[in-house]
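Subject line: Sequence and fold of a protein, written as structure tokens
Enclosed: The protein record, placed directly beneath this head.
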Amino acid sequence: MSNPLFYAKILLFGEYGIIEDSQGLTLPYSFYKGTLKFSDLNNDFEKKSNLSLKKYSDYLTNLELPDNFKLNVSDFQKDIEKGLFFDSNIPQGYGVGSSGALVAAIFEKYSIKKYTPENIAKEELKDLKKVFGLLESYFHGKSSGIDPLICYMNLPILIENKENVDRVSIPKSEEGKGAIFLIDSGMTGETGPMVQIFFEKMKTEGFRKTLKEEFIRYNNACIDAFLKKEMNPFFKNLKSLSVWAYEHFKPMIPETIYKAWKKGLDSNAYYLKLCGSGGGGYILGFTKDYEKADKMLQGFHKEIIYRF
């Protein structure tokens, strides 16, 4: 029985802002993926994964889900006894949705009512996002449900606001000088503590004001320009967004990336932003000239995810 693959996700825009009702834009990233498998649990990775599934199944036993989205937890538990584990190369703590892919895989296999992602109506997406939020909150304390939703749908998703999401088509990646790329900060980040810092900051009126009036405005303008393929306004707003994050999200920017972030802003050769909650993991880079940015970012491991 070959199980479907669930890809990692990249939140291009909307980190932290989506908590406060900004838009978000997110896409699947097929370089990393995971799938549920059975094995004799001979190695440590498989044993550890099987054990964490066992703990997760205990959480699911007590979780009240709406009728349309109930899971067959007893089947899940029987399979765990038979050696079920999540075979995944998605790095944890890198902001690319390791727990999202796991939740999506479990929902796909064990939901009592079967869904076909292509046929899910926009209204159902809203309900599914809530359910995924409940399923993923085990891993993060509080989840919007967006990560598992993207992993499950395997399509670019536009987050319109806190409640609504919709499928969206993004301009086709083409061979050009420009690129969106990932930079490995060389350290893992933990979502929980980073989100905690954000909520602490939200207690000050000045931060709340600048987040609403500046960050959200630049963020939404970037999404709008990117989807319309208008690259000049895109980079103009992107720079403002990168400057804003450099000033207000300092604790979330990994120390290893700090100078490189500033260098991009000073030279206008590339701009960096957080990928997910920050603190470590990947950072997103955007440039009109990848060769130039690549030279300036020597020493960092990079992966291109989109060309234009």
In short: The radius of gyration is 20 Å. The longest strand covers residues 24-38. The chain has ten helices and nine strands.
